[in-house]
Structure formats: C-alpha cells, structure tokens
Amino acid sequence: MNRTDQLIAILGIGTAVPEFCLDQTDTSQRLAEALKEYPDSMRWAKRIFKQCGVATRYTCEPNLLESAEDCRYFSQNSNRRFPSTAERMEIYKKASVPLGLNVARKALEDAKVDVSDITHLITVSCTGQFLPGLDTELVKGLGLAETINRIPLNFIGCAAGLKAVCMSRQIVSNNPTSKVLIVCVELCTLHIQPSTQREALYGTSFFGDGASACIVGSAGAEHTAIFQLGKEHSVLLQDAAGDMVWEVGDYGFDLYLSPNIPKLIGQFVPEQVKHLLRDDQKPDIWAIHPGGKGIIDKLEEIFELTEEQTRPSRNVLRNFGNMSSATILFVLNEMRQELQALHSKSASGLALAFGPGITCEMIQITYLPSVTLQAQQYVHDHV
Fold it and tell me: Which parts form a coiled-coil structure per UniProt (predicted)?
C-alpha cells in the first residue's frame, strides 16, 4: 500500500480496571456516614451520587471500600491522618505499571502486531507521576526496543487519550511503517478528598480508575473491526481556563469542575465540528468522552443524537465512571463490540474528548469490519 491509499487505523484495543469495585449506592451511603455532622454536604452528596449516571466504578485502593470510620479518604475525624500526595503517588507507582502492561499486551494481541514492530510508545496519565516513568517500565516489561521513540503525555487531563491518537495518526502518516503503542493509565480515585466542599464531592461521585491501550498503524488484510482515522481538529476555548482546574495539593490533586461546562461545550463545539464535517453530513457514530452525564446530554440535544448513538458513552460512564484519558478507548471498544454484534458494515463519525483549558480534541473515525479493496475505496472516497 503506498502513501496515497494508506489506511491509518486503530488496529487493536485493550482495556482493564483494578480489582476493587466501588458500588455507587454503597459508596454514597458510606460517604454520607462520614458527612453526618455536615447535613448540607451530606444531602448534596447523596443527590449528585444518584444523578451522575454511574452505577459502578473501580479503584486500586482497597481502603476506599472500608467503613466511613476506617476510610482515610472519607473520614472527617480530625484525629485520622489523611493520605499525603507522596503516599498517593507511591500507590500510583505500584498499581499503574501492572495495569499498563496488561492493556498493552491486550492491544498487541488484538492488533495482531508483534512487540518488535512497535516504533513509538506514547504513555498518557494525569493522575500520577514518577521517574523513571511508566514509559521506561513498559519498555522493560514488554520487551520493547531500547531505541523506541518514547513520548510521555503527562498532566494534560481527560482529552489526552484522544490527543495521543491524533498524534499517532500524524506519525504514521509521515512514516507508513511506523506502529504506535498508546498506553493510558489513570488512577483517579487516589485523589478523593476528605472534604465537605461541593467541588470535591462532585469529583468523588463519578471518577474511577482504569487503563486502556491501542495500536495505531497502517492496516493490512489481517486486521478486522478497526477504526480508520481521518482528519483531526484541536481547539482551546478562550476565557474558560478557570472552569476546569486540576492542581497538585498536599493531599492529592485538587479538582474543580464548573457546573457551566456542559453549557460551554454546547456553545462552542458545534462550530468546531464544522472543521471536520460538511453541512449536510450526519455522522453515524459518535464516540463521546463521558466527562459527565451533562456533557453527553448536551451533545445529544444539540446534534439530535439517538439513544443508540450515545449508548456506548453512557454504558462506559455507568459501568466504569470517568477514567480521564483512558475513557475514550473504553468508549471505542464498547462501540466496536456493539457494531460487531450487529454485523454492521462501514460506519463513519467522530470521536470527541474534552479537558482543562477548556480543550476539545476531535477526529474523524470510520468503523471497518475488514480491510478489503471495497473498504479502501470507501475510505478514499469519504476522507
């Protein structure tokens, strides 16, 4: 395949979560117990836990499953010592590496790509840092080449997973023999705060831990159920820097999410989508990063999406919560499984993710059940 008819795609996906499950109802009850001396905060927390669209999440921290009195992340008892940022980073270091190795191996197997073929490694995370980093651990653990091009994307938020996909497409476009391994690991629950503030309790209600990986490269006849990647677009919304803030604090990372975020996204995304779609185009598939139930609701309303089109995003939010940068590959994997089950033919659309800034990343995607001459012609005609 020469460069003019090169089919660049997500060739394989791997996802995983830690072993400890946070049931939303149980977690809400235990948090309410911890807030019993703060009735206003308790009532608000109960309401947001019920309304945020999450049923289960996962965590790498077993202490988060303990009673309110024994949970160091929930307790308001001033005699208890809350986990410091250093302690949380130590847990991150121990838990992130096996999760990253797990999803990387799944993606390699799914893509039918040998580890020796990987030329670039992009590691993504905003919930923990250490050096030498996750990228070096993956090189050793997977047996990647010592000369591999390593690109860490650290501390840039939920949109970073899709940013990595867009970067990978550019890499492969410039060198068709490249194969890029993307590994996203996010341990969001490590930053749950023992707080009565609404902003902290809001983040506590729907963030979860998870890891995902994918292989981006030129597709061949051996690849099936892939997402071909088209044009991408990135934009920074002006005058919105204070609406989504993620800062390092003494007891983990401090998160602030403005209630205006869905409204802001609704105001500026439609105009930005025009950079990738003709006026008469109506995408079949929408891989929306479920940064919150309100974001999905707003985009569903604006673009008149059906329940089927937003189902993958809502399913991931309900079953796993928002796993920051790792989430978009969970959504694409959910969408792929559904399209496979329906024996769907080619379907085109968009993937979108949002992060601090406020930043929006988007890219054209086309689901292809197989790589055939007909499929290649479809891509050539539509991208």
Answer: none
